Amino acid sequence: MMNLFSFKNLSIGKLELVVVWVLLLALPRSGTAQESQETTDSLFVAKNPIEAFRHGSMDLHFRSFFMATDNRAGLSDYYALATGGGLHFKTAPLYGFRFGIAGVFNYNLASSDFTKKDPATGASNRYEIGLFDVEDPTNKNNLDRMEEFWLQYEQKKWRIKFGKQLLQTPFINYQDGRMRPTEVAGVWGQAAPGSNISVEGGWLWKISPRSTVDWYSVGRSIGLYPKGLNPDGSLSGYPENLESKGVALIGVNRKFGEHLKVQLWNQMIENISNTVFLQNDLQIPLKNGHTLFGGLQLMHQNALADGGNTDQKMTYFPKGAQSNALSTQLGWQHKAWKTSIAYTRVTKDGRFLTPREWGREPFYTFMSRERIEGSGDTHSITGKVAWSTNNRRLKAELVYGHFYLPDVNETALNKYAFPSFNQLNIDVRYRFNGWLDGLQSQLLVVHKGQIGDTYGQDKYVINRVDMWQYNFVLNYYL
Q: Apex CA 416: angle with CA 413 and CA 422, to 5°?
């Protein structure tokens, strides 16, 4: 079992930060007044830059995140406690223009020593390091980052934003499961030519993945996380060796009647790969407030040029390679209850490849703390039950899944040599009110069991299967 952590190394500066947080939590808040001010500012149209800044809106966000991983007996266990916050500001509109800026700071209050490898397997920490800086396991204090810095121009039916910003697409998204979300730099436009259709897209040239503190070119951003193996089983050599000018994306969202929503996306990573993604979501109202819902997703990927590098030992998407996937779900919802089952199939055509640094997977079977990226010829099956109180202050969700991957030795279709596994997630969230209005808590408990053969080698087990993980998160929004 894991050892209890200690605060003996906590510096005075960090103690001051904890005291500030406690004081902030104790401050009374007036939700009505804040909402009124936000509404006033959103309707206000400035006549000059001074008015634009004076009537701008500001948001403060503080977060505390405890994470602990309990591996099989004989293997290393890990823990980490992080805290930090962020400040976001945007001006009021001025002749259609708005300016926004945001920054974050984080601290490692206590944690395992991430520089030490597991004695039995030589494996490094996998999860907890993600709360800080995956590029520097010794970095505990220099974890600040300029997150947003953008200029936006907006008219009634369209807007365009230039600079560092947050983005939510199927394969490039916040993936906000640690201390900082993934950010992008580029130009992004959105338009709504009709009441039932919207279009968005743009060009990205830099990315700052979650669990990092710097900004990287598109090619350099791929490979910051574990790189896995080439199809022939040799170590992948693509980190810092990929050439790409940027990412082009376009998405179309269309409603057909009141119950069917369709979205079609194309993501082109210049000189590396192209991904087409189609999603259809259908809701069928039944009697007495019951609703039946279902969905279908289709994905196709193919390599562009040499996949990022002419040397196939150093490329990301092998030349001439492709992958295909299908995901579907069926569910029922009534008042406080929602339940569904989902299935995803990645075919034998090739590995499903998308940079883990850029976002979470969009498939219906996705579960926090694991992915099927890097694999082909897979079957994923999940079942989900969710419940909430009438005021939605308390929410609980239970998800269970089986993920059948190729054998760990079949590296042509198993990039990370990951065994088949089952997974259970228990997620409970509570939103406080009164004096603690603005405070939200989350408890996430994860268990992963082994299905596939690991051939008696613990390197296929540690931080992968036969493990429990505990997460407790506090978010405070001002």
A: 90
What's the angle, vertex CA 109, arms to CA 104 and CA 111, rounded to 5? 115
Q: Which phi and psi (to 5°) does residue 89 adopt?
A: -135, 140
**Quick one: which of 384, 393, 478, 401 has its CA closest to 442?**
393
Collect all residues with Cβ–Cβ distance below 8 Å to 39 and sequence separation of at least 6. none
Cβ pair 372, 364 in contact under 8 A: no
| H-state helical runs in 264-400 | none
Phi, psi of 79 (to 5 degrees): -150, 160
pLDDT in tens, 287-325: 999 999 999 999 999 999 999 999 999 999 999 999 999
Distance of alpha carbon 448 from alpha carbon 452, whole angstroms: 12
Q: Are 90 and 100 in contact (CB under 8 A)?
A: yes
Nearest to 224 by CA among 240, 237, 241, 235: 240
Instruction: Give, for 24, the enclosing helix (H) or strand (E).
Output: helix 12-26
CA angle 30, 31, 36 (to 5 degrees): 105
Give pTM, 2 decimals: 0.89
